Every structure is written in C-alpha cells, then in structure tokens.
Amino acid sequence: MAPARPAAMVVLLELTSDFPGAPGRQGPGRLSRSGPCRRRGRSSPEKEPRMTVTENTGARTEEAATLIGDARERVDALDDRIIGLVQERMAVSAVIQDARITSGGRRVNLSREMEILGRYREALGKPGTALAMTLLELSRGRI
Questions:
Q1: Which of 49, 50, 113, 138 lies at 20 to 30 Å from 81 by C-alpha?
Q2: Is the dihedral of CA 123, 124, 130, 135 positive or negative?
Q3: Residue 21 has pLDDT above 80, yes or no
Q4: Distance of CA 42 to the CA centre of its chain
Q5: What is the per-residue pLDDT for 114?
Q6: Which residues, at least 6 apart from 30, have a Cβ–Cβ distance to it below 8 Å?
Q7: Exposed (0-12), middle (13-18) or buried (19+): which is 76, by Cβ within 10 Å?
Q8: Residue 67 in contact with residue 58, Cβ under 8 Å?
Q9: What is the CA radius of gyration of the chain?
Q10: Which residues contact 91 (CB under 8 A, 6 or more apart)?
Q11: For residue 53, with 0-12 CB atoms within 10 Å meaning exposed, 13-18 middle and 19 or more buried, which class applies?
Q12: Which of 44, 50, 58, 142 lies closest to 97 in space, CA to CA?
C-alpha cells in the first residue's frame, strides 16, 4: 500500500490557504482593483450604472470580485512556488544523472520513472500522468 502523501498535502494546503472560502481563512481580503467597468451594448456613458468590478475578474458583484482577486493572488503565489520547485527538481535530477553516468550507469532509470508516473497517477488521476511525464522530460536535461 502506498504512503498517504496526498492526504498530508491536502492538510498542509488547508492550513496555509488564506483566500476567501478556504478552511482557516484569516483576515480581510486584499484585492487591488482599478476603476469601474462599463457594460457592453450601452451607447451613452451617462446612463451606464457605475460598477465597482474590474473587467479582468468577470465578476458582477463586489463580493465575487474580491473572492476572485484574492484567489488569483493565491494561485499566482502558488504558481511561483511550483515553478521554483520544478527548477529545484531539475537541478537535483541533474546531480543524480551526473552521478549515475559518472559511475558507468545510464542517464535515465526507467524503473524509477515508472514509479514516479505511478505516484502522480495515484494522487492526481490520469492528468497526473501527463504532469509527471512533463516533469520527467524537463528533468532529464539535454543529451
């Protein structure tokens, strides 16, 4: 039976999430918005209602715009961390490959790659396999 890593990851994310609607949310939202947007199809600006929602959220209410803005900030921060982790993974993989090649082994260890594919598939389903394949491709380096 595989270790319970996905459950531990979910708990960690729940404990660190700070966007509206997430478990353990702390403090007010911090959405920075531009000015009001206009509805399409109206011809005269003086008859348009002033909306406090930005076009980039697609929201129709202030509450939804705040939720979307806060969640997007969180997604952007997560993306930055993911990119950093992928870059770190690539560097560690390069060290492993160099040690393997220097010792007379092959650059790629297919049984290890199959193990990684299985772990991602188990945790994330079929899309996890595609994600793992992309990570493996990035981590193999140049021939």
A1: 113
A2: negative
A3: no
A4: 38
A5: 97
A6: 70, 73
A7: exposed
A8: no
A9: 23
A10: none
A11: buried
A12: 142
